[in-house]
What we know:
Blueprint lengths: L2 H4 L2 E2 L5 E5 L2 E5 L4 E5 L4 E6 L2 E6 L4 H22 L2 E8 L4 E5 L2 E5 L6 E4 L4 E4 L5 E6 L2 H14 L9 E4 L13
Antiparallel strand pairs: 1-6, 2-3, 3-4, 5-6, 7-12, 7-13, 8-9, 9-10, 11-12
Amino acid sequence: MSRVGKKPIAVPNGVNAKIDGQSIAVKGAKGELKFVAPAEVTLTLENSAIRVDPRSDSKRARAMWGMSRARINNLVVGVTQGFEKRLEITGVGYKAAVVGKTLQMSLGYSHDVQFPIPAGVTIVAPKPTELTIAGFDKRQVGQVAAEIRALRPPEPYKGKGVKYAGEFIFRKEGKKK
């Protein structure tokens, strides 16, 4: 039994949830998100709560049960509160700034890196060495953060690069003479 899947998802005031077969659409103050559940689960809306139940007792149905419940919960949280990822930039001369719809970064290359900010995501640089990525779609916020981090991942000797806030970088010692 899935501990995650058993819990019903409360739909707060101001949020509309509409189930049409295997697809669910959630609309709130921040926007509208949709999800198509796998065939192994059923979706029901009762008493302003969404329930996800497995159709059978197979291993795949139980796995899809918990995953579907978590994804639908992320839709509800996204349209009410939104999601946020923070990145830190470490290195001499490494910095970032938001210029219009573009994130401009100096990451130690011979040129500045231009990253276009996608629709539905906002990027703020409160300091030149910090970035905050926010949006209502958890998947999109995580994808944008991963793409920015991949432009210059942290290296293990001096820790220079772009990393998630709070991420631990295993440091290497280097060669001894």
